[in-house]
Amino acid sequence: MRKISRIPFLLILAAMPTFCMAQPLKQVRPEKVGMNSQKLLKADSIIDEAIKQGDIPGAVLAVVRHGQMAYLKAYGNRQLWPTKVPMTTNTIFDMASCSKAMSTAISALILCEEGKFRMLDAVNRYIPGFEDYKDESGETTTIRIQHLMTHTSGLPAYYSPARDAVPDPDAAIERISHMRRGFEPGTGFRYSCLNFITLQRIVETVSGMSLREFSRKRIFAPLGMNHTDYIPCAPGADGVWRNTDQPCWAKLMPEGEDWRSIVAPTTKQGPDSVLCGMVHDPLARIMNGGISGNAGLFTSAEDAAILCAMLQNDGEWNGKRIMSKQTARLLRTVPRFAEEFGRTFGWDCYSDYASCNGDLFSKQTYCHTGFTGTGVVIDPELDCSVILLTNAVHPDEGGATVRLRSVVSNAVAASIEH
Asked: What is the rounded distance in angstroms from the CA atom of residue 210 to the CA atom of residue 289?
């Protein structure tokens, strides 16, 4: 296994020529991009009602059309406990499973277009000992990278690490490599965090960089997404979990201001603590120390809007080409072998998990959501993206966002007039 660099990340950022000053999307009135601002107010009332009902503490909504920010608004609070803190448009959220689509999948496809691997390659070509599917008669079927990316590998959905475990990515991969496969690859669909933890290991093996380093160097820094990062963490000798490195935006904070002050907290961890700046997902936090293929990315609505603008523009934004046109289009295309299941290589078009698309966007729409309450919807036909970020798991994991994301998408789509 190739050893991944562990140089302190802020030193890497300092040496990176691609670390750009933030260049947020130009904000315009909705009418400038063919949208009705009065109809968009319906999204406000929908979100305000969800806050009133206790479904979410607050939210940030961003709408991108024709490469411009048509709508950006904050609602409610980003923190309810131990004290209330108002939501702001620059709030940074734990993106949870949106990390799969926004970071891991894009990183993998960049390496694919560079010839580092192909979708038909066997997983065990890069992870020695990774077991293929074996039926009752002993016949084997190869699990391939394309199966990981479309959740058709047969791997279990998840496993819960022991509470007293310490970060050990190798142990996680070893366990995943030998888990029982539930079905022959390519014949079924089961959404699985383990698929993308496995994909992470392949990305890191062939690139020689951690997923954090690769995605920052090849995606986020070139786009000027300077409030987007993974945040490493580990337990100390006293058993208390702490951050082991700072995120990239720490150096952009006013002197004396904590970088966590703009992060939306998630779930209570005890009578006097709450997760803030450490990924909520247990596998990502405990086994992978915050840098994980299934979860761990933190970002703001404005940064996510830049990524969406790049994808809507076929892989290029502000003079920076992140991927080829063909690769960008592949990202939103359901491959033939997976047509029954509706998943692209990392995103979702029409599986049962795609309800956030709503009812009014085109058939070309693709999306992803996260357990913490995040969601990104992109319609290439209407050239419109909806980014709805919430921390619905704060403070007690009692939130609800499935219906909310869908009706907000409908309100935004209905506001498009030409």
From this structure: 12
**What pLDDT digit, counting tens, does each position of 132-184 carry?**
999 999 999 999 999 999 999 999 999 999 988 999 999 999 999 999 999 99
Three-state DSSP at 204 gives helix
CB half-sphere exposure, 322, CA atoms < 13 A: 35
Q: Distance (Å, rounded) from C-alpha 290 to C-alpha 275?
A: 12
- Could you give the 3-state DSSP secondary structure of residue 139? coil
Q: Is the peptide bond before 128 cis (omega within 30 degrees of 0)?
A: no
The enclosing H or E element of 106 equals helix 106-113
> In this structure, is the dihedral angle defined by the CA atoms of residues 290, 295, 301 and 302, taken in order, positive or negative?
positive
Instruction: Give 414's contacts (C-beta < 8 A, 6+ positions apart).
Output: 39, 42, 360
* Closest to 358 measured CA to CA, from 25, 105, 43, 34: 43
pLDDT at 236: 94
User: Cα 63 to chain center, whole Å?
Assistant: 17
CA nearest 368: which of 156, 97, 107, 158?
A: 97
**Any idea which residue has 């970060």 for tokens?**
167
pTM: 0.95
Q: Are 224 and 22 in contact (CB under 8 A)?
A: yes
Q: Residue 49's CB: how many other CB atoms inside 10 A?
A: 12
Q: What is the CA angle 369-371-372, rounded to 5?
A: 105
Q: Are 216 and 248 in contact (CB under 8 A)?
A: yes
101 CB-contact burial (10 Å; exposed 0-12 / middle 13-18 / buried 19+): buried
